[in-house]
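Changelog entry: the AI-2E family transporter record was regenerated in this release. Current contents:
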Amino acid sequence: MVKIFGRRWSSGATKPTLSDNAAAKAAYLDSHPEVVHADLEQLDSETREMYRDAREAAVDAREERAKTHTRDFVVRSPFQLGFTVTLGVLVALLVGSIIGQLSTIIMYVAAALFIALGLDPVVRMLERRGIKRPLGIGIVFGGFVLVIGGLLGIIIPMIANQITLLVRSAPALVQDLNNQPWFIDLNSRFGEFVDFDGLLRMGQDFVGDPENLAQMAGGVWQAGIGIANGLTAGLIVLILTLYFLASLRSVKRAFYSLVPRSGRAKVIDITEQVTKSVGGYVNGMVVLAFTNAVLGFIMMTIVGVPFAGLVAVGVFFLALIPLIGSVLATVLVSIVALFDSPMTAIIAAVYYLIYMQIESYLLTPRIMNRVVSVPGSLVVIGALAGGTLLGLLGALISIPVTAMVLMIIKQVWMPRQEMR
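Regenerated structure tokens:
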């Protein structure tokens, strides 16, 4: 992003006061040091023309506001005001109910838009190298589908085999715990406080009971139905992603057209920054999660963690969750490694503690801080709020949404506060 149109106020310049005219205030807001304008070279020709026209309209609007005086708001009809407010509340409740009914579709649209914004930077890179956008979209989307299909082709058989192995070996694993040295030592030290033998017998009885196995089979059947529904949802998201990627520029222009012409330039500035940040964030998170899963799989294979492939898939999806994903992955790997031996669990935990330090201080700053920069406390709050509202998808989009809110505060609200 570069600064264009208009001069910048120096640090020693006098800020406009309430007594100054509207044109001076608007010029200050437009040239504030925190304000970042859109880079014209990154915009397509139609959006560039719309942006220039909006800048001219903003200048005209400043001059017009400088000539006119603001009118005080006077309530002439309290009944009419109360009726209007009540009607607005009823409409808001109706819209909220409709959104609740369409929550699944909204999640599909949000996920598709999120993926499209992540693929758009790659399409733009191909455009800069002379490839037409439709062909670039075909190359990027086709490559994306091939990668997803290849990963599913590798992962699904591996997961199926390891789940089958887990079901077959579960009784033996539970029964073998009684002969593990670490279990014997734990029982000898704390057996007078906790009945470990009783807990182990309960586990053995549960695994050995045919009725429980039937319930587990029913759970597996329900899980299969859930997987089928997930694949259907994934196909819908994939189709929506293609549509969004192909029409992203026209969708943004349509959104800009809904804004008044004099205020359109500021909306374009913020929207272009947000879409660029989201695209970089998605790519960065996928790279970090993939690195975490691959290195973790290598470590688990070396130290002998059971079901390393299945656990690595879980690590990948957990690592997509901001900030706390690596911690959850550490807990998952350590618990699974405990079935092999306490030493294996300790090695896995130590590895992930070291990896989290490398990721936090080396990988994340190099990959993520160039696109989004959000304080850690706000990342935690945003992830918790997003996860509560929208589940995993909400946790994934929490950082871009938080960055967007901070961007609006820094570039719109704070400059206005400095004039008061």
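Residues 103-258 form one domain.
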